[in-house]
């Protein structure tokens, strides 16, 4: 189990290649183009969200999750670009961080989309493009990524998104203590009712774990399909 929690892999080149390319020793031009497009979508949306929300941008869990997705998209682009330039040390240094952020970002994206559209979104109002991009398109991009990448995602890796969720819960408590009159970021995280909110937090951690489980099983299914139908070795 500890081996599956670890972020050390015997073959770092799988982090810069697609599951579906025949030669995984070097990234293809198609894969670099794909990673460039994904990175630009994340960066442009991330900047737009900051400009729209202004000084309160930092307090929302959605923006924390989207930031993770954006950083991991930048990291993998840098790793692929470095490999193309034969800068091997960049890949060795960055892939563990990318792996962790990709795991966290994927689970968070699914979680954020589910919670937003099931609990938080007001269906009496038309959803704006930006709201869709940060609450819906995030999951779409990470889902597509999950189908394309070559690196694994293990069930024990769930410790990373759960830890991230706990950090945000602690942040929401600190924020409430600093701003007791208007420090409730989300109605479901109302720390003026601590027992109820603790119960909600435990439930949300369970939901986050569920989405990580789904992502990990999809990752394994992708590898199994490739091994059975596309592996010519």
From TrEMBL:
InterPro entries tied to this protein: Rost
Keyword Membrane: yes
Transmembrane segments: 32-51, 63-82, 94-117, 129-150, 162-180, 195-218
A Pfam short name: Rost
Keyword Transmembrane: yes
Cellular component annotations (GO), alphabetically ordered: membrane
The protein's name: Protein rolling stone
Species in which this protein is naturally found: Psylliodes chrysocephalus
